[in-house]
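User: Some background: our group keeps a shared notebook of sequences we're curious about, and every so often someone picks one and asks for a predicted structure to add to the entry. Today it's my turn. The entry only has the sequence so far, pasted here. Could you supply the structure so I can complete it?
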Amino acid sequence: MKHFTPQDVGKFMSPRMLGMVVGGAILVAIAATSIYIVDQAEEAVITRFGKYVTTKGPGLQFKLPFGIDRNYTVNVRNVRTEEFGFRSVRSGSSPAYSNQASFPIAQYSAQASESTMLTGDLNIVEVEWIIQYRIVDPRAWTFNVNERVATIRDVSRSAINMLVGDRAIMDIMGLERSAIEAAGIEFMNETFRGYGLGIDVIAVRLQTIEPPAGVRQAFEDVNKAIQDMNRLINEGQQVYNEEIPRTRGEADRLIRIAEGYAAERVNRSRGDVARFNSVYDEYRRSPDVTRQRLYYEMIEEVFKDEEGTAVIDRSLRNFLPMMNLGGGR
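Assistant: Of course. Here's the predicted structure to add to the notebook entry:
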């Protein structure tokens, strides 16, 4: 095994070797402070001596070394979520969450202050909701606001409190739920644009809306009564929709039958009138002949369903008595 001697150490520490070592260290430092990678979901905000220069997209990027340029990477694809009135315990396909009762006392107070609100009809309601947003301006997100998350939460709480305070409690728990969500998105985006926060709220979802625990049962009874009322109204409407058209159809059928009967009777009466007038005209011209013809027609009508009947006059002038040879005794 070779041992280093003072002469060998002197050769190793020569100026040329030292220059190469120092140069290599400088190159490594330059590479380490000037090369960076931006992920596909990110954008990099670049400053030079603390002043904004540019924003760069995904890929291998370069900047001035030794802290002259600084990069701040911001994820612009990720959808971020803020929760109010509850906190998620785990994420996944079936996320669980905890409300106020499962938190320590200090956190319990904070949760209650988030979810408890006063409605427009002076009732108290507990509202749990979430907002989802995405960063659309990395420069504004990086520099314009210091307490970004706190600002987002304060604006969201203000918006939901305002919207809940403008409505009655039964409307909030029923028909106005989607209207509150839509109005919340519009109000928050307008406010954040005014602050220059660089985000876009894409969803507001009201998770749970319920009265305080002390009166919850009474409100549930009221809701049940309202649901029963609506169900009975719907059932009545269904029966109405089934019976009224059928009844109207039956009425129209009877009307058509009556109209047909009326037309038949009118036409028959008109025919009888016309026949009577024609007979009367004939009677005026030949009374005896007409009277005789009417008599025959009447006799024919009376005996048209009879069989084996002979019509004779009183003096038997039109009758020849003969023995019935084809019949019985």
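Suggested note for the entry: The chain is about 50% helix and 20% strand. Residues 22-74 form one domain.
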